[in-house]
Here is the input.
Amino acid sequence: MVEVKNLTKKYGTHLAVSDVNFNIQKGEIIGFLGPNGAGKSTIMNILTGYLSLTSGEVKIDGFDIMENPEEAKKRIGYLPEIPPLYIDMKVREYLNFIFDLKKVKFPKKAHIDEIMKLIKIDHVANRLIKNLSKGYRQRVGFAQALIGNPDILILDEPTVGLDPKQIIEIRNLISRLGKNHTIILSSHILSEIQAVCKRVIIINKGRIIADDLPETLSDKLSNDHALVARIECNESDMLEALKTVQGVKSVMSMGCKEGGTFDFLIEPEDNTDIRKAVFERVVSRGKSILSLNSNKLSLEQVFLRLTEAETYEESRKLLGYDAEPETEIEIQAEIEVEEEENE
Ligand code: ADP
Ligand code: MG
Here is the structure.
């Protein structure tokens, strides 16, 4: 549905997006996650044809966004970071205007009525946009994106500035739309992405540093099946006792948490389930385990670790990826650079 190859965008000399690659299949709901300035809006603006690319290729349903912009754009509904609302228009009037602008071929009134009903703004059809709450204005923004029934929806930070109740409403709306649309959603807030997206693309400094399921990312960053045990004990005695449990590779104390208790990070040999053995050892020393958890990271922690890494290579390493070039194009580029250097 969406194919992006070696996408690069420079604003003057500033490299905002660098060699980005991804494909999105029909029906997927994808989250672009990245801190402010990462390049999310730039990528979205290029996908929707609002911004030209410096190099690379973008295809929407097989149509090249540069060569065949009309066909490509027809398939996309776009809700920009700042929705293009004309606040002195009434809701229906504005949607009629967008309908004409997009040169949609459907019966006008029926199409707009249907969208207003779906988005639940039919009761404010005759209100001026400037008199609507922020949440309602955002819904009008969704409505304009849906005009023409595009298959793909691109939503740039759709819940920014909304209150918690409005956020939940918009989130539910996105989930509903996700049943029969392909959706790309951006956010710098994790819970947002986690709530609606099956796949997450983490972007930092203009590059994709991860593209995976949220669970897989957290697995990759966590030590395999490492445990965190909170034990009421003497720290150094317990450290020694845990180290000799069968199947344990390493033990580290994470310090005192509550009075008289310590947290230990216990790493097993490959794929060994050490929970029972750890429990028995602690009990045999006459001590109590207060909690025993797997050391899995939340998506929040994953995101922080990845974006805090100074370089692309560092963040890839955290995920256990090889820092070596992966694609043939990258390898080819390296060879060319070497050849140039040798000349
Ligand atoms: P995000 O949406 O992830 O916050 P953007 O795509 O808006 O990030 O910005 C990516 C980078 O490009 C930032 O460093 C930003 O300052 C820069 N940038 C964005 N738009 C422009 C522009 N029109 N001119 C120059 N630089 C820009
Ligand atoms: Mg942005």
Q: What stands out?
A: The CA atoms of residues 194 and 214 lie 7 Å apart.
